[in-house]
Specification:
binds cobalt (II) ion; alpha/beta; 2 domains
Length: 441
C-alpha cells in the first residue's frame, strides 16, 4: 500500500483531472487500463469472460470495473463497492450568452443541492463534453477542460445590501449569473465560436465544426491544498465524492487478484439517481445480468456478496456541535464513518456495519459511526438504491468532512487514506473475518 504522501499527491492529481463526471470516468478508465483492465462496450457482445480485469462505461459519466479470478459462475461471491462521480455545481444553459450594460454573462442552471454562497468571487473555469461534427461527417464527442480562469460571480457590494451578513438570500435565476467578458458589441458573441476555439486546441479539424450539443460545468480553478499548522487538513472542490471514487479505483487496482470484486461509479447521485446512469437506473443490474445470465445463479452470487457504498459523511463542525447527535460525533482524521439510519436513508444494518468494521480491523485503521439527529432530515446516497435495485447486503460508509456541497470542502488528510486501506482489505483479504455468517434458526 502506498505511503500517505504518495497517496495525497495521487488524490490531488486525480481530483485536478476530474472537474466533471465525464473527466472522472476518463481518469478512472485511464488508470484501470494502465493496470491491465480490458475495455468492454455495452453495444458489443462480451462472449465468455475469463479471469482478468474489465471496465465498462455508460454515457461517459458512469463506470463499472470488475476483476474476476475465474469464469463468472454461481458460487462466486462478489466484493462490491460504489461511489458517485458527480458533485453539485453550476451547469451552462443551452443558449447561455447574455449581454447587459457592457457585460457578457453566462446563463447557468444549478445542479444538485449546491451551497451557493461560496460560489461568489471565485476564479471559475469551464469543462465538460461537446458533441460536434465537421461538414456532413459523423457526430463526434470530445471532452474539454479550459483550465484557465474564465468567469466569476461578483458579490453585490455591502453598500447596496446592508443586511447581507444577517439575512442574505440568493435568487438562482438572477443573482447567480457569472460574468465572463466585457464587450461594447450590441449583439451577443457566439458561444459556439468560443467552443470551436477550445476544441481545436486538441482537434485542429474542429476549427470549422458545427457544435450540436454540450454538457458543460463551471468549476473553481483553485487547486486542492493542504492546510493547518501541521498540514492536517485538505481543502478543495468535489471531495464529495471524488475521494471515494479515487479510493475505490485505487483499492481495486492496487490489490492482488485473489478475490472477485466490482466497483460501480454512478453519475446523478446529487440529483436523485433516477437516470440511465444513476444508482436507481439499470446500469449495475444489466452488467450483472450479462455476467450471470441465469437468474438463479445471479441470485446465488448476490446472496453471498456485500456492497460497500462510499460517500462522504458529516464530521462534527466545531462552530455548530449542536447539529450532531451528541453520542455520534464523527471527527476529522479518525477514520471512515459507518452511517446508520433506522428509516433506510442509509442501507447499513448491524451485520453489514460489522463486516465493514472487520475490514477496518484487518487494515488496522480506525472507524466511527454517524446517525442523524431525530429532529433533522437525513440525507441519502447510492447505498439504499443499489440495495433495492439488486438485493445485495449493503453498508453505507464515508470519510468525514466539513462544508459538504460547498465549492470548497474541508477534510482531514488521513481519512481518504484510511478508506483506501479499508477497501484494499475488503477487496483482497483472504480473511474469514470478512464473510457473512449464517444464522442457524
Ligand atoms: Co456525496
Amino acid at each position: 500500500m502506498m505511503p500517505i504522501d504518495n497517496y495525497l499527491d495521487d488524490l490531488f492529481s486525480f481530483i485536478d483531472r476530474s472537474p466533471t463526471p465525464f473527466h472522472t470516468v476518463a481518469a478512472g478508465v485511464a488508470l484501470l487500463r494502465d493496470r491491465g483492465f480490458h475495455r468492454l462496450r455495452e453495444s458489443d457482445t462480451w462472449g465468455e469472460l475469463g479471469p482478468g480485469g474489465y471496465v465498462v462505461t455508460r454515457n461517459d459519466s458512469s463506470l463499472i470495473a470488475f476483476s474476476l479470478t475465474r469464469r463468472p459462475q454461481a458460487g462466486m461471491a462478489l466484493r462490491m463497492a460504489g461511489a458517485h462521480t458527480d458533485s453539485p455545481g453550476l451547469k451552462v444553459k443551452p443558449n447561455p450568452i447574455q449581454m447587459r450594460n457592457g457585460c457578457g454573462q453566462l446563463g447557468v442552471e444549478v445542479y444538485g443541492g449546491a451551497l451557493l454562497a461560496p460560489w461568489f468571487d471565485r476564479n471559475l473555469s469551464l469543462a465538460g463534453r461537446i458533441s460536434w461534427r465537421v461538414d456532413d461527417g459523423p457526430l463526434q464527442c470530445s471532452l474539454i477542460d479550459c483550465r484557465r480562469p474564465l468567469a466569476t460571480i461578483p458579490s453585490l457590494a455591502i453598500h447596496f445590501d446592508r443586511e447581507a451578513n444577517d439575512k442574505r438570500s440568493i435568487n438562482k435565476q438572477t443573482d447567480l449569473v457569472p460574468l465572463w467578458m466585457l464587450s461594447e458589441a450590441s449583439s451577443p458573441p457566439d458561444f459556439h465560436d468560443f467552443l470551436r476555439r477550445e476544441l481545436s486546441a486538441c482537434h485542429p479539424e474542429a476549427a470549422a465544426a458545427t457544435i450540436l450539443g454540450f454538457d458543460l460545468f463551471l468549476y473553481d480553478t483553485q487547486p486542492l491544498c493542504r492546510l493547518g499548522v501541521n498540514g492536517e487538513l485538505i481543502t478543495g472542490s468535489r471531495l464529495d465524492n471524488l475521494v471515494s471514487c479515487h479510493a475505490l479505483i485505487g483499492a481495486l487496482t492496487d490489490t492482488d487478484h485473489l478475490r472477485d470484486r466490482l466497483v460501480v461509479l454512478n453519475d446523478h447521485e446529487e440529483v436523485g439517481s433516477v437516470s440511465a446512469t444513476g444508482a436507481q437506473g439499470p446500469f449495475l443490474r444489466t452488467v450483472l445480468e450479462r455476467l450471470f445470465p441465469e437468474p438463479v445463479d445471479r441470485r446465488r452470487v448476490l446472496a453471498g456478496s456485500l456492497f460497500v457504498s462510499a460517500d462522504n459523511a458529516h464530521a462534527v463542525h466545531p462552530n455548530f456541535p449542536g447539529k450532531h447527535d451528541q453520542d455520534h460525533l464523527p471527527l476529522l482524521n479518525h477514520g471512515p464513518v459507518i452511517k446508520v439510519n433506522a428509516n433506510q436513508r442509509y442501507a447499513t444494518d448491524g451485520l453489514t456495519g460489522a463486516l465493514f468494521r472487520q475490514c477496518c480491523t484487518v487494515a488496522q485503521v480506525p472507524c466511527q459511526q454517524f446517525v442523524m439527529r431525530n429532529d433533522l432530515a437525513c440525507g441519502s446516497t447510492i447505498g439504499p438504491l443499489t440495495a433495492a435495485e439488486i438485493g445485495v447486503p449493503t453498508v453505507d460508509v464515508g470519510v468525514p468532512q466539513l462544508a459538504m456541497h460547498s465549492i470548497r470542502e474541508t477534510m482531514g488528510h488521513l481519512d481518504g487514506w484510511y478508506l483506501l486501506r479499508a477497501m484494499a482489505a475488503f477487496f483482497s483479504a483472504e480473511d474469514d473475518r470478512i464473510r457473512c455468517p449464517e444464522i442457524n434458526f
